[in-house]
Write a structure and sequence with these properties.
Helix 1 runs antiparallel to helix 2. The chain has a single domain, classed as DNA polymerase beta, N-terminal domain-like (DNA polymerase, domain 1), CATH 1.10.150. The protein has a two-stranded antiparallel ribbon. It has five helices and two strands.
C-alpha cells in the first residue's frame, strides 16, 4: 500500500515531539509541527507532487530541508514506518525505519543510492 499524506504528517509530528523532549531548538520542532499540520490539511497527495517533480518547498511551511525529507521517503517506502529517538548529551539521534517497496528498488546499488 502506498504512503499517504497522513503518514508523513505523523512522522513529522513524532520528530517534533522527540525534538521537544530533547529540548532541541524550539524553532526546528515548530517547523516539523507546522509542516505536519499543513500536510494533514492538504487536498493534494504529496506522492503525486513528488512524481510530477514539483517544488515542495513552495508549499506553505515546507522549506527546502523538509521538502528534501519528503522526497527521500516517497514513493520508495511501504506503509509501516517507525521513528525512534534517543537523547544523549544534550542532543537527540533519530532513526527512521521503514520497509522499501521492491518495485522501486531494482538492485543493491539502486537501494544504496536511494538510502544515501
Amino acid at each position: 500500500m502506498p504512503i499517504h499524506n497522513s503518514d508523513i504528517a505523523n512522522i513529522f509530528e513524532e520528530i517534533a515531539d522527540l525534538l521537544q523532549i530533547d529540548n532541541a531548538n524550539p524553532f526546528r520542532a515548530r517547523a516539523y509541527r507546522n509542516a505536519a499540520r499543513m500536510i494533514h490539511g492538504m487536498n493534494q497527495k504529496l506522492k503525486t507532487l513528488v512524481e510530477r517533480n514539483e517544488d515542495l518547498s513552495k508549499l506553505p511551511t515546507i522549506g527546502k530541508d523538509l521538502s528534501t525529507k519528503i522526497k527521500e521517503i516517497l514513493p520508495y517506502i511501504g506503509e509501516d514506518i517507525k521513528v525512534m529517538g534517543i537523547s544523549m548529551d544534550n542532543k537527540i539521534e533519530l532513526t527512521i525505519a521503514c520497509v522499501f517497496v521492491d518495485r522501486y528498488i531494482t538492485d543493491t546499488d539502486n537501494y544504496l543510492r536511494k538510502t544515501g
